[in-house]
From TrEMBL, chains A, B:
Listed GO MF terms: enoyl-[acyl-carrier-protein] reductase (NADPH) activity
Subcellular localization, as worded in the UniProt entry: Mitochondrion
Origin organism lineage: Eukaryota, Viridiplantae, Streptophyta, Embryophyta, Tracheophyta
Presence of keyword Transit peptide: yes
Protein name: Enoyl-[acyl-carrier-protein] reductase, mitochondrial
An example Gene Ontology biological process: fatty acid biosynthetic process
An example Gene Ontology CC term for this record: mitochondrion
Amino acid sequence: MAAAAIVRGPSQQVSRIWRFAKFSNRQSVGIRAYSALMSPPSKAVVYEHHGAPDSVTRVIERLPEEIKENDLCVKMLASPINPSDINRIEGVYPIRPQVPAVGGYEGVGEVYIVGSAVRDFAPGDRVILSPPSSGTWQTFVVKEQSVWHKISKDTPIEYAATIIVNPLSALRMLEDFVSLNSGDSIVQNGATSTVGQCIVQLAQLRGIHSINIIRDRPGSDEAKETLKKLGAAEVFTESQLNLKNVKSLLDGIPEPAVGFNCVGGDSASLVLKFLRHGGTMVTYGGMSKKPVSVSTSSFIFKDLSLRGFWLQKWLGSDKATECRRMIDYLLSLVLEGKLKYEMEMTSFDDFHIALDKALGKLGSQPKQVIRF
Amino acid sequence: MAAAAIVRGPSQQVSRIWRFAKFSNRQSVGIRAYSALMSPPSKAVVYEHHGAPDSVTRVIERLPEEIKENDLCVKMLASPINPSDINRIEGVYPIRPQVPAVGGYEGVGEVYIVGSAVRDFAPGDRVILSPPSSGTWQTFVVKEQSVWHKISKDTPIEYAATIIVNPLSALRMLEDFVSLNSGDSIVQNGATSTVGQCIVQLAQLRGIHSINIIRDRPGSDEAKETLKKLGAAEVFTESQLNLKNVKSLLDGIPEPAVGFNCVGGDSASLVLKFLRHGGTMVTYGGMSKKPVSVSTSSFIFKDLSLRGFWLQKWLGSDKATECRRMIDYLLSLVLEGKLKYEMEMTSFDDFHIALDKALGKLGSQPKQVIRF
């Protein structure tokens, strides 16, 4: 299959431009190396310009791509739809690939073809992108061998596909801001998010009590139960915290020195209310799209610090080895049954259904993972 | 003059209670030591309960007080009315003296009588309270010798009286949060405040450019001129900053790594707008009585940190020696003409006029300093 063909989407615009770009590319390949290794054609989710993900993304077939001597061609097995993937397509993310672009940022696959100079990988190896990078929503990904990290084939693919963006964020946030010891506590909002679920479990593994805040919504009782089973010390809905002294609810748990906020607005204020004198709130998301509001006295008299966390900064090049050690640790927890989180696997054929779910158009849904 | 007498104020309530308390005290003194050293009676601003300072404060005469062997009795010369003094009387300050209490927190005086065991001070010595403590709004203050710090008699009393709460805050804020070098810049709002004026000068002495934000009000042009004369690199009114890219105004000055906020609300947002990636905003006041509001992306993508500063924490007991070194440094700058700020001296007889000015009832006014 050598020509691009639209698989889904009303407009022909994307594929025409895409085809032109790939065609030029193929021409130059042809001139440079007659016997170049080529990938199979790849089915991919692409967007040509930024905007609402459900209207700007199309699933197309891409032309075969050259596999250079140090490249791996990986047959993708699974890749998640993370909130940051959506922000990248919307164009509101500070770092975004040049359009036209293939969506997705992390994922797992199986080595399919290795470049001529590759020695450390062989077809059949299970690999993830580490550090992650753009373009994982496609059936075949060709990238230089150094960005691939070999993992055990025993790892369930949905965990292998999702182990960096959320679990690694949870791990780093627990480690990087405040020195926490067994017996200490943390507080977080958005506790049912994937990061939230990971924080609960990683905290518990360290003997740290987690105080969790979730939204009031149908099913919040079940969500409480789920979090408690994962190891949450306390779970409150926001309306339960509509009282002056939230700390009276702590029941022997020490006041937290650190809090994690992925919601903003009033929910962030609840995190601040729980923090002990001198505590730190780390913001890593803003699901409510509302700013964080802080009283002057919180800063002066309660000595609170407010910080931000962005995994991207952590994934910087000089940390590659350290990141892989942490990823292996997280994957080992998965294999030991000590780290789990809710996910839903959806076939690539139903990508746009998964996307709608990830966009919240179908109510509260677990993390969507595309299976190729 | 052995009995308490009301000097000003319509209600007799305060002085009656006060008289009773002092009477009990005198009885016990009489039993313990027949030849006790006693201070002269002291004229003092007292409040019996917390509330609006202009209605709860009364000027009364206090009975003579025992001077114990390690005490100094100091004839006060001057003491300022700081915003925190007002907050203490209002009862909104986290640390407040037990009522009934004498107002005021810092000041300068002359040693009048020394306790029998005192060797390092003699009558006539010029002293300030270091660390500062409650009760400086009175003509004679009796406190243990260790809280007094001897200073040069050449120091103008209005500067000696005010050198800790505001100038020391300015110095610590410049030193404690971000490592600043010559050529760097800082940004602040409330720049016409005493702390603000000190920051401008202390920054300039270190070769640091100060970007200053002031309110739009009649006289803001003069305020700009005053700040520029003190060494401000840039002064903007808030309305001048009503544009998307405030950094385009910086004209060669590097983006600031640290900002100081004593206003809150929109004015704090202007400080945040100027900060460079990874910058820190330090809140030390909230003159607008509005909270600080911060976008999620400021935390995550701009990596801003928000902190608070409270001098009280700095004045903690183990820092006493260090504080006095810094105070001597600041006083030396005053003597060299390198540190100045606007003040108005008011006679103690007109205390309530000065208080009204400090409360903002008479428009924008310089720092009020009571001369005894």
